[in-house]
Amino acid sequence: QVQLVESGGELVQAGGSLRLSCVASGGTFSRAVMGWFRQVPGKEREFVAAITWGDRKYYADSVKGRFTISRDNAKATGYLQMNSLKPEDTAVYYCATRAYYSLTYYSPRDYEYWGQGTQVTISS
């Protein structure tokens, strides 16, 4: 059973930066895609970024140029570096992964395993 644990969320001012981490256990992290999603109350979970095991990266238009996804396979850890943060980035951020091969990355349905989430709050 794959387990994911996120950390790094906190309250920061607009324009600031945060780095989220996602530590994976129980699976073959180096061969798995990892995605980041976010969710605010009353809204659907929204795609933020994904990185394949071959280091191909995908971003939502709303974060392109501000967020950077990366991974350290030796540590079984994924990262989301978030710069130039805006109040609209406020959400619970989740990392996710899956054990099967697929070329789709943008929907929560494309992932099997999820972390518990970490709260990111951006003050104006």
The SS-based structural class is mainly beta
The separation of the N and C termini measures: 40 Å
Estimated radius of gyration: 13 Å
Strand segment count: 11
Q: What do you see in this structure?
A:
This protein has 124 residues and is mostly beta strands. 0% of the residues lie in helices and 47% in strands. The protein contains no helices and 11 strands. It has strands at residues 3-7, 11-13, 18-25, 34-39, 46-51, 57-59, 67-72, 77-82, 91-97, 113-114, 118-123. Strands 2, 4, 5, 6, 9, 10 and 11 form a 7-stranded mixed sheet that branches. The radius of gyration is 13 Å and the shape is globular. It starts with a strand and ends with a strand. The model has no long low-confidence stretch (mean pLDDT 95).
Which helices and strands occur, and which strands form pairs?
Elements lengths: L2 E5 L3 E3 L4 E8 L8 E6 L6 E6 L5 E3 L7 E6 L4 E6 L8 E7 L15 E2 L3 E6 L1
Short descriptors:
mainly beta, four-stranded antiparallel beta sheet, 47% strand
Summarize this, please?
The chain is mainly β and 124 residues long.
